[in-house]
Amino acid sequence: MTERIKRFQEFVSTKSIYFPSAEIYFDNHAGFYEYGPIGNKIRLNIIDFWRKEIVQKNDFLEISGSMILPKSVFEASGHLKKFDDPIATCSKCKQVFKLDKLLSEITSQEIHENLTIEDYEKKIKENNITCPLCKNNLEKITRFNLMAPINIGATEGAVAYLRGETCQSIFIDFLRIYKTSRRTLPIGVCQHGKVYRNEISPRNGLLRCREFEQLECELFFNPKDIDSVDLSNILNNKIRFKLLKDTEEKEYSVKELIDQNIVCGKLLIYYLDILQKFLLDLGFSLENMRFRETSDEEKAFYSKQTFDLEILSNNTWIELFSFNYRTDYDLTSHSKGSKKDLSIVEDGNKFTPHVLEVASIGLDRLFYLILENNFKIKEINQEQRNILSLKPKISPYFVAVLPLVKKDGLLEKSQEIYEFLKKENLFEVFFDEKGSIGKRYARLDEIGCNYCITIDHQTIEDETVTLRDRDTFEQKRVSIKELKEKLFCFYNF
Amino acid sequence: MTERIKRFQEFVSTKSIYFPSAEIYFDNHAGFYEYGPIGNKIRLNIIDFWRKEIVQKNDFLEISGSMILPKSVFEASGHLKKFDDPIATCSKCKQVFKLDKLLSEITSQEIHENLTIEDYEKKIKENNITCPLCKNNLEKITRFNLMAPINIGATEGAVAYLRGETCQSIFIDFLRIYKTSRRTLPIGVCQHGKVYRNEISPRNGLLRCREFEQLECELFFNPKDIDSVDLSNILNNKIRFKLLKDTEEKEYSVKELIDQNIVCGKLLIYYLDILQKFLLDLGFSLENMRFRETSDEEKAFYSKQTFDLEILSNNTWIELFSFNYRTDYDLTSHSKGSKKDLSIVEDGNKFTPHVLEVASIGLDRLFYLILENNFKIKEINQEQRNILSLKPKISPYFVAVLPLVKKDGLLEKSQEIYEFLKKENLFEVFFDEKGSIGKRYARLDEIGCNYCITIDHQTIEDETVTLRDRDTFEQKRVSIKELKEKLFCFYNF
Fold it and tell me: How far is Cα A263 from Cα A247, in angstroms, rounded to an integer?
């Protein structure tokens, strides 16, 4: 682990950004986390930002459905058969291992999670794999379903499941939403909510939890319109890919993507461009992201084309979400399962809409990656200082108001400015009068506060304050009169 | 059912405000609901309003914890023993009934849910109660636990539960939050999230679901400071109660509450006042709400004083949340359960903080009650029209932009105004060009849009539009220049 990651984890723990659920108890409750007050503010800001940039700007619809759905839904969707991981159990210590992960680590090859049982058995034999804990044989090579059943009501038998992804209610609700929306395709339907996956070995903190949140976005469209979108304004925009045919990451302009037939429709390119912009605005750098084209072996069987959006974190590419052209698989499956016709009629034609899974983002993963990617260590006066360089709309506090000292009327003046800035709820304001001004700056830099306003004796004389920038440490004298407007500009930049 | 309620339910269904989960499937999945796009907008606005008015204005902390917690947490909290309902099963048709509900309905007496099994048996005998469906005997009089167990991981035995309320993680996380907050008591800790209760007979739509959301707020304080709050500014504020000693609802001033020793501490009065204001701001009228004092028989055993906040809906008082002085019960229980000392030291004194459950609001219930209370039928030109009189911060759209007709440049002008109003995300703006202007007004009134802006031929000539008020139908000519500021004023009023 690098020094930076070590300091990052220490920061996360000491500030209670997030921490293990029920940690005061002895139970093994791996894979469950709580967000503390500062972490939760950042979490809420990310959700808000997604809602504004993805849902509202694209005029998508947002719904909120149940986390628990009846068995028949997941029978139709295929989750009860196919939403599983390959596992093996140690014949002696009985520890259970996720096989793709175990094999990948030991063989240093990339081994996917959807090989056949025979393939895994072959690989175990070939590579002489034993239990990494006690070196005994692995047995019970099988697939383990990640869906968690739950009994409903007082009588036996009514089995439902905790959803493993937020998209299924979008599919089963689609026809109703469509009918009451007074719209024609394409229609985007989004959902934010919790999901549960009974992971074998949750690990890496927020990167693989059992309970987590998704920010989901599914686009329904008429397949004949897959190229009916005007890209002329964005032809020169560049999107960063790792294609199967390329040996490394490469940026392609929208024009190149069209000309070289890399993406299977202009509609898909349109959203790839939007997603990249969204991620840049969230605070990722272009060199730390890529749309990785997946092989046929790797991608879901119903997908016509899949790009995994990956973020570089601590020298490893981490999947943040899949961009999936799901075709008519979902509506057709639920049509069969429910025996309800889920096709629609537009312009006299009856058809089953196709689905583009624009993004099904793991919120907790996104949260972790934003923080980790923007956590910096800066040396100042031979002291190592943590800086969390969050964007204004994501940071827990955009601006803090700090009286230099509490006496001479500075505390009162500061409170006045604090109330004035807070009034219309334009951005989040923090007040801090405890400790030396240097320590306060350091604390605020560490949690990502973008600006500090310091009220000193000069403030009383000429109605000006100092405005300090978190990233450059630059301090400027600003009149109180201009303060709110200036900050509002910075906030919306 | 009244005509108004009938029309309300029809409105909810045809507009997909909310609807049963997995309704295209045949499974009995009672007690689960989905919010459609308009319903979800209102739901999100209510959450936002709570966050701003309760969490932020009171400087409370907000966390976000797991929905699934280990068994030991609920053993300590008492949920596995006491979070249950009395039930009886029909000896013939095997239907299960919630006993307090069944007995209350049949005997027309108020029968609470925490009597002993013997008491229920006695009442069944006395009143000759049989199965309301098939008239056979009731048997298996017992208590049914509402907590839903779930197996974690691939090995048997690790049992956890879906939480039945959002407060437990607040209690078990408290010490960590306290230590990293750099604050002293009192400290409010809030949480919004889903909970699950395995209800015997979910009913009344959103009023009793199995899966629902809570808006939770717990205040930790030093019991010696229960009267250390200055109420001098609110002495004349009146709060509406239904006390045990009174035969009907009655308003008491804060001064009367103190003088007559009605509430067991000034700190409690302070928050009762805040809560009443919050509910009024959400759109309830004072005559439709009351803090009902609960009897010893009715209230939770750990509570020193409980007021149930109830809302009048369709001539029935519905509990929205409990205001509970929980004393040190929760921290003491988890201290024992976890064997960790959860007391703190302030001013040299070691003590276990007391907890005031300020409000643990069922969001879905709140949602339903706001809509139902504000759903009105207005007769216009001998036509019955639905109006949803939501407050600006709650309504799905605050303002709609409507071109009178699409030709003569009115569509373009309207789009320009729409983009201009949307720009800084000050409030939600809707655009609608489909159908006659009268029908558009009617549709927008029905979903609660506060204002309509109509762009007509005069707009092109003199840069003015008409601004129409949803509740009064009044239309005024306003210049485009003043429009945004005026609307922003109305929005924040």
Answer: 18
